[in-house]
Each structure stands twice: as C-alpha cells, then as structure tokens.
Amino acid sequence: DNPIVYSFDREMIKTYLKKHEIKYLQDSEGDLIIKYGYDEDIDCELTIYLMASGKNQNVYSISIRSNKRINKEKWHDAIIVCNQWNLESRWPTASFFIRNKEDKYGYIFLEYHLDLDAGIHQQLLDNITSQVISGGYKFWYATNKYF
Questions:
Q1: List of long-range contacts for 36-41, beta carbons under 8 Å, 24+ apart
Q2: pLDDT per residue over 107-120, tens digit each?
Q3: CA distance 27 to 42
Q4: DSSP characters for the chain?
Q5: Angstrom distance (rounded) from CA 58 to CA 7
Q6: In this predicted model, what pLDDT tens digit does every residue of 13-54 receive, in sequence order?
C-alpha cells in the first residue's frame, strides 16, 4: 500500500487537526493556530502556528510560542539552553529573541520548516506535525527548571 503524494496545502494541516480532534483558529492569512491553556508542568501557555509559507506557500512551517518571559538576568542561560537543545535534538529549533537591548524580557521561539515543493503524503505530514509538537513540549519540560 503506497500512500499518495499530494501538493502541500492548508487542507492537509486541517485534516491532521480534525483527525486528532484538535480545536484550532484560522488567522486572516489562512494559517492555523492552536492555543493551549496554562500548563503548570511547564509553567506557561503554548500557542502553535501551523503555516503554509514561502513564495509558493509550499513550505510547511510550525512555530511554537510560549508566553514565558525570560528576565534579563537569565538571557545568558536562555541562549545556552537553546544551543544545547539544538545540539541534542533535531526539532524544533530553539531560538532566543529580544527586540532590542533595552528590553527587560526575552522570549524563546521554537520552529520547524520543511520545503514541500515536491509534495507529501498525509501520513508523513501527520507524523512530522506530531513529532514537532511533541518536541516543543519536551523542550519546555526539559528547560522549565532554568526559568
């Protein structure tokens, strides 16, 4: 049984979400958003963006954002934690972000991008999505003690 390869689009993401009975929102650009409430085990809320991005909308992008603010005195630790995660884990990639040096808080963003110009079958998209979301939670479970 060979799965059928389809052109990537947001409908494939919706199929995944419906299959797993995940409630989602859709923004004005058509991207899909999952909002998880506060989780005391990771001491934050996560918002996951599932996007078709790129010039031809053929790049599958998953962005996992946390509402956890990193105090300035922890910025160095945050960079080390992100770098260590990126060395040991395949996905998602962790990045520490501040808008400017005068900010009092920074944030950690988790991201994954995959060029799907050649298409993808639904089972693989489902597996990738689950792995990246699971990886995002693993990141916060593993690093919560630092912040």
A1: 41/141, 41/144
A2: 999 999 999 999 99
A3: 26
A4: -PPPPB---HHHHHHHHHHTT---EE-TTS-EEEEEEEETTTTEEEEEEEEEESTTS-EEEEEEEE---EEGGGHHHHHHHHHHHHHH--SSEEEEE-SSTT-SEEEEEEEEEEE-TT-B-HHHHHHHHHHHHHHHHHHHHHHGGG-
A5: 8
A6: 999 999 999 999 999 999 999 999 999 999 999 999 999 999
Alpha carbon distance 142, 135 (integer Å): 10
pTM: 0.94
Q: Residue for token digits 């300035």? A: 72
Query: Does 125 have pLDDT greater than 90?
Result: yes
